[in-house]
Write a structure and sequence with these properties.
This protein is of the alpha+beta class and 590 residues long. The protein is built from 18 helices and 18 strands.
């Protein structure tokens, strides 16, 4: 009880502390994440706004108009150089992520600015915007806009073609009835560097998503231009910023919108990273609580043991007595009430031990009387038919069969009339069965086919007297005498395993009905008082079952009823394999 109180108090305090700490850490993590994303959004917003503002300035500049209305190539080149020196080159100086600017006139004029500020990616020298007019003129594309794509028009520092993700701004203008195309490509490396600066957990990663759910930038290049999962898109739609826990992937999602652009920075962090502090608190709480509980339990056990040692000894003695050990005695020490209780219990055990011995002796005598009474109740009605057959054969003439039948009947009477010998060998029991069969053959002739099979290695094993012949008699009584048809009676005695013997008696008679089989099994499984068996007037299944239970006294002996393979009845006797001591000594001598 003391230990339970200590466990309860410490557990409540530890749980309350852990819950409050977890809530505080969750709140701080969410607030800290929002602050980091706001700062990242400011940088991304400034970067995107600068790029967009430059592109808008470029497409509305007077220099672009002069380039578009140039009448010859010389005027076109002059206008482009002015535009490059006034707008493009100053922008590239502070924005090295700008890769190229392409201007194309439907008359065939084309000007391309290739940035040399990026030392990793270069626009192919053979590139022409004319090759992409089909894409730009696609009706699904608006007049002006931006999109993310993997452009195959770039090479690395060794002039090997590479496919790189770029942010492309494009615009279509009409001057004097002629179409002019302006395209600007920006590297996404700057955006990725900004996203990489977002530090929310060791395994967290950030990505930039546009208003359609398309990934603009990601640590995994192959995910760029792909669409995020529908479940993520649904979570991003309702609010401009926020955080949610995703049960499917066990991740925390934190997102923030970039002002005036509509794109969102999305960060996915494994919850295990965020919960590391919570896990540490939980582990330390468990360790400290467990240590405290262990010390408290040791102290309580030591204190209780020093006070109640003699009561524990008394309790241990009572437990052993409950298991049937009446020889144990309590070591009585002291002169107080506990010592008097121990002495009184020892005296009680001595009285119980004496009573158990007397009861055992009385029970043994009673069981012997019950067995003797059961055996004396064996009433074999077939003796009358046998004597009648002998009388008929004697009347006809002297016949050898009369002598065999008479001898068999005499052996049976001698075997069953010896009440002092309750245990016989399998060999003796089968000989008694053979005598019975010899008598029955004289009565029924060829109407009954007896099939007896005995394992020769179990002939010296012990069994109760007259437990097989009654069932064979029942086969005839309830089979041939009821139906009048030819009857097969089969007896098999064999060793089931090293410790058990089995005798099966089966026939092809009428067998058991479902109701009768259920009734017999219920009676066999039910514990019957011995008075019910002492009142039996004839041999039966319950009689033999009680004899087995009374003699062996445990569950090693069973009697089972079932239907045989011939369609009739089947009775199986199972009991322990035991050999008489005289036989065992003879085997040792051999």
């Amino acid at each position: 009880m003391i230990t339970s109180i200590i466990v309860f108090v410490v557990t409540v305090i530890g749980s309350f502390s852990f819950i409050k700490s977890s809530q505080a850490i969750d709140h701080d993590v969410e607030r800290f994440s929002s602050q980091i994303l706001k700062q990242a959004n400011l940088n991304l917003g400034r970067y995107m706004n600068d790029s967009q503002h430059f592109f808008q300035t470029l497409i509305s500049s007077e220099e672009l108009r002069q380039w578009a209305v140039a009448r010859n190539k010389y005027q076109s080149v002059s206008a482009y150089q002015t535009m490059a020196s006034r707008f493009i080159e100053p922008f590239v100086t502070y924005h090295p992520e700008m890769l190229s600017i392409m201007i194309y006139h439907v008359n065939g004029y084309e000007s391309i600015f290739r940035s040399d500020k990026n030392n990793q990616i270069y626009l192919n020298t053979k590139y022409s915007l004319k090759d992409e007019l089909n894409v730009l003129n696609d009706p699904s594309n608006p007049t002006t806009g931006r999109k993310i794509l993997f452009s195959p028009s770039y090479t690395d520092s060794k002039s090997y073609p590479v496919e790189v993700p770029v942010l492309r701004y494009y615009h279509k203008l009409i001057y004097n009835g002629h179409m002019v195309y302006v395209v600007m490509d920006l590297s996404l490396l700057a955006i990725r560097e900004i996203l990489d600066e977002i530090d929310l957990g060791h395994n967290g990663y950030a990505m930039l998503v546009d208003e359609k759910g398309i990934i603009v930038s990601s640590p995994e290049s192959e995910r760029i231009t792909t669409k995020i999962h529908n479940s993520l898109e649904e979570r991003l739609k309702p609010k401009a910023h926020g955080s949610q826990y995703i049960p499917e992937t066990k991740e925390m999602m934190v997102y923030e919108s970039i002002p005036r652009i509509g794109w969102k920075v999305l960060v996915l962090i494994p919850y295990s990273d965020l919960a590391k502090s919570i896990t540490d608190i939980r582990n330390w709480t468990i360790i400290m609580t467990g240590t405290g509980l262990l010390l408290a339990v040791i102290l309580v056990v030591w204190l209780a043991n020093s006070i109640t040692k003699r009561l524990k000894d008394l309790r241990r003695t009572i437990k052993q007595t409950r298991m049937g050990n009446f020889d144990i005695r309590l070591n009585v020490q002291g002169t107080d009430e506990v010592a008097e209780l121990g002495a009184a219990y020892n005296h009680l055990l001595e009285r119980i031990d004496s009573s158990v011995i007397q009861l055992a002796e009385t029970r043994l005598v009673q069981q012997r009387a019950v067995l003797s009474a059961l055996q004396s109740q064996i009433h074999s009605h077939f003796f009358y038919n046998a004597l009648e057959s002998i009388n008929s054969m004697a009347h006809l003439a002297g016949h050898k069969e009369i002598r065999r039948t008479t001898v068999a009947l005499s052996n049976m009477l001698r075997y069953t009339s010896n009440y002092q010998e309750a245990v016989v060998t399998i060999k003796q029991e089968m000989k008694h069965l053979a005598d019975y069969i010899r008598v029955m053959e004289s009565v029924y002739r060829d109407a009954v086919d007896f099939r007896i099979h005995t394992d020769p290695f179990i002939e010296e094993a012990q069994c109760l007297k007259a437990i097989v012949q009654p069932f064979v008699e029942n086969c005839i009584k309830h089979g041939y005498e009821v139906t009048g048809r030819g009857l097969i009676v089969e007896v098999n005695a064999y060793r089931l395993n090293d410790l058990t013997l089995r005798i099966d008696i089966l026939d092809n008679g009428i067998g058991f009905t479902d109701e009768k089989l259920r009734e017999l099994r219920n009676k066999l499984n039910r514990q019957q008082p011995e008075q019910n068996f002492t009142q039996l007037s004839n041999i039966g299944v319950l009689n033999v079952c009680y004899r087995l239970m009374t003699f062996y006294g445990d569950h090693s002996a069973t009697l089972e009823v079932d239907r045989s393979t011939y369609g009739g009845a089947k009775v199986s006797l199972t009991f322990p394999y035991r050999v008489a001591q005289d036989s065992a000594r003879e085997d040792d001598g051999l």
